Amino acid sequence: MLSIKNLTASINGTPVLKGIDLEIKAGEIHAIMGPNGSGKSTLGKVLVGHPAYEVTGGEVLYEGRNLFELAADERARAGLFMGFQHPIEVPGVSNAAFLRLAYNKKAEAEGRDELDPLEFDDFIHEKIKLVSMKEEFLDRSLNEGFSGGEKKRNEILQMAVLEPKLAILDELDSGLDIDALRVLGEAVNKLQRPDRALLIITHFPRILETIQPQFVHVLSGGRILKSAGKELATELEDRGYDWVLEEAAAGGAR
Amino acid sequence: MTSTFNVVTSQEYKYGFVTDIEADSVAPGLSEEVIRFISAKKGEPDWLLEFRLKAYRHWLTMSEPEWAKVDYPKPDFQKIVYYSAPKPKKPQYASMDEVDPELRRTFEKLGVPIHEQEALAGVAVDVVFDSVSVTTTYREKLAAVGIIFCSFSEAVKSHPDLVKQYLGSVVPSSDNFYAALNSAVFTDGSFVFIPKGVACPMDLSTYFRINNKESGQFERTLIVAEEGASVSYLEGCTAPQFDTNQLHAAVVELVALDRASIKYSTVQNWYAGDKDGKGGIFNFVTKRGLCKGKASHISWTQVETGSAITWKYPSCVLLGDDSIGEFYSVALTNHKQQADTGTKMIHIGRNTKSTIVSKGISAGDSSNSYRGLVKVQPKAEGARNFSQCDSMLIGQSCSASTFPYIEVQNRSARVEHEATTSKIGEEQLLYFQQRGIPAEEAISMIINGFCKDVFRELPMEFAVEATRLLSLKLEGSVG
Ligand SMILES: Nc1ncnc2c1ncn2[C@@H]1O[C@H](COP(=O)(O)OP(=O)(O)OP(=O)(O)O)[C@@H](O)[C@H]1O
Ligand SMILES: [Mg+2]
Does A66 touch chain B if contact means CB atoms closer than 8 Å? Predict the structure, then answer.
């Protein structure tokens, strides 16, 4: 589904991604862990088309197409989704109106019927149950004044509405209380299908107990230094990152 | 950089065409002779000529105001044409069939409903082309309930006493440089009179069009609502695209008697000049409403998107006890446009209330200032004001400023002021795009959200028009 080869990218002339290789197949769940500032969010933003980042090399194929030939909104309509680490606030734009427009844009692109406000109302009520969100959040301005956890819940609501093929969830777990973590983790699981894939960016193994990855990657200094199975997450929690860095340095292969 | 943003070239100004029509104009320049010519052309009574000459003599002693945060070459008042009328000279047509077909096509192109049968949702329209009003629709229907809606020139002839009573009663001819100039040379505009107890059954509207390259537009509008009367009035404007600047210096006076209510909405889309700031309208306008009676209500709503320079402060003088003044404004500037706009709320009567909601949007290299005065005079016991001034910046090289002036001379008064500045940046836009919403629609949604409190005040069709206009004006300015 997604194939990243030797991807390099920089921001304001400073290289942040220094050669990423990653292969994600339908049905798979991948986790990326790594120290602060290592480039995890950058990887996600580059994939979804953030204009501030310059792709300096490598290639990314999404369902066989060159991802970088698509505009950010086209990537989204093609099924790529990113739940942001810090969702932005948009005053005056109602959450419901935003969700409906996003839904309809995708429906239009896929040749499905668009939903009018009444139909959307029924549709969205099912979706908010999935993430246990209170109805009043639909009428509020998009993310405005939402708490950190409420913003994350809203990200997953959007994911539920759009049903993406590949969702990148950047630190979904940070800022969530224990119950919210479980509810949203389960919601994400329910949305996962054999023809979909997930890329979970996190610092903590806890969320990976609910959303269980087959692969865990360590990203540090703009490179993936180690990839292994789910057990790597707990090992990292016990031992930190230093040993991975040392191992990589000793390997010296690169 | 692989920017994935759709860069759309900025939408050309759609109303920038010139109508090739024979005009009856006076030679450029200003003198007592020119004023006498205009007055004679319009067959005005002596008192009105005197009013003009007095204003002119006062104007000669005044100098252009310098305090606004706008920078422009001072107009050469001797190069302006002060009177230009499409021929035939007849200032009012009995039916649309008499109107020059070229002129008719102009308004069709502009989408202005000048045929009653085509009129939008029954809005009565007065159409002003350069210096004269060319047609007013629905007059008979309105006359049946005692409402007078006609061109200013016509009102001078048919209702001289009303005009004499109220003209200059809110904006004296010596009020400021541009008001004095307007009082000397004004050519046409609209006159509205709503008698006691009548609620105007439809929205009234004036459409202003500057066509002549050298002509200034100096329109004069006077709206009077008697006791318990109410009216909603809409004003729209466009001009052709020239590489020189044209001057627009209007005066609008509103008078509301006891319990009367006047709602005045403007969507201003004068030509703004090109990307490099060449050409465009200088819009120097004095608009003021007098809440003369008890519990009277005047509300200004404006959406300012055009003009090279905007200098405009629709104000309310709250004289009657319990009267209410409101000002809702969206001012958008792009490229090299400059706007200095805001309001004055003068609280004189007891328990007077005012609300100010100002939304400034700046993009490109433009400069956008809010300037507002809230003044509470000693006798305004219990006066209240709430002001909200928000600015939104798009891109790196524009600027926004807020200049609130507050003068309170009564201790029981409550005055609140809130201000915010935000940015539509890449982050906000990416968020929308990441959810599958194209950049243009995203901008329009964000801007609409930002302006919601103002658009809510506009009549439905105007709100739709305003939304569309803002999106058009901003195309290509993000990303
Ligand atoms: N706009 C920017 N200007 C300059 N440097 C930036 C910018 N955005 C990101 N960076 C830098 O790029 C590097 C990678 O940042 P990124 O956000 O991808 O880290 P991260 O792995 O997600 O970290 P965290 O775990 O703290 O979220 C950091 O050193 C960061 O400071
Ligand atoms: Mg991060």
Answer: no
